[in-house]
Amino acid sequence: MAGNTLGNIFRVTTWGESHGDSIGCVIDGCPAGLRLSPRQIRDELTRDIPYPVLTRRVETNNFQILSGVFEGYTIGTPISIIIRNSNVESDKYKKIIHTPRPGHADLTYRMKYGHVDWRGGSRASGRTWISTVAAGAVAKNICKLKSVAVTSRLLELGGYKVNPDNLESVIESLAEESKETNDTTGGIIEVKIKNPPVGLGAPMFNRFQADLGHAILNIPGVKSFEIGSGKYSSRLKASLFNDPIDFKEGKIKTLRNRAGGVLGGITYGNPVIFRFAVKPTPSILIPQKSVNLRTMKSAMMSTEGRFDANYTPRAQVVSEAVSAIITADHLILSGYVSHDSIIPRKERLLFGMQTRDL
Ligand SMILES: Cc1cc2nc3c(=O)[nH]c(=O)nc-3n(C[C@H](O)[C@H](O)[C@H](O)COP(=O)(O)O)c2cc1C
Prior knowledge:
By secondary structure, the chain is α+β, with helices and mostly antiparallel strands. The chain has nine helices and 18 strands. It has a single domain (9-355), classed as 4-Layer Sandwich (Chorismate synthase, AroC fold).
């Protein structure tokens, strides 16, 4: 099963299955001298389940940094992080081994690989993405070096527009509704990369938004990606769409941000803003039409295992992590951060990294 790595120089490989002993990541290409405390990783991992009322599998996410960090700083070697799976209930999946869940990856995994781990969706499970969230904590530290911040917000949940005032109540009612109807919902998320330096991205196959889109569309259940004014761009005339260019506080800026912060695949200092849509959780208790792969006959099936009533808030956490990974990678690719060490070259021999702070 190829394709477990994200990034060009700052490369994150994740491993592990939803119901295996543990999951984790290996980060290759992280420069030496970056301050990294277990607390920073813990802080990101505790965001895994932002709203427990929407989720039935809650994990403690006990983790260990196995390599790549010494005395609180990265040393340039691969950083390996292991996260234990402690709350698995695999038996429930035995009942649906032969009847793939509509909307999930059971069918395609079977067709492509023949032999698969049927417990909890294996690599197709949202669970495995918590490794990426751990790697995102490291990437966010690289972003901080250049004062770049990745933020996000929920725009829609289950078809309702959400804001900080109604968010909790919408979540409560979606959880309640899911209990009553046994059905699930999706949502829309907006991600903002604040203060990107000029020149991230390259015009052909490393366009900044294309690398972000690649990362976001790899998150399970993501069904669309749009940057700036997105699909509405096609409805505007160029005279309204184009962002006028001017001087602002001594810097060249555009006066609007319909482009979403990227032109010709390259950032120019405006915030990079994009949105994506998450489909409803495919596993539901409602009986659905499927096939029995053993008898090769039509069969009705309903999910037995645990599932999220709406996993959009969890996908939001993952989206910040992958966006930080792509941004960190581009900061290195564009020369803003050295891939060898964050300590200035002339200081490397003179000072130990212990004397430096982020
Ligand atoms: C954080 C996260 C949590 C998820 N939780 C569930 C879940 O509880 N049940 C489920 O059926 N799918 C869940 N999914 C979605 C499936 O993983 C996804 O639909 C499946 O792998 C098929 O991939 P596709 O929808 O991209 O085709 C989750 C996805 C993410 C990112």
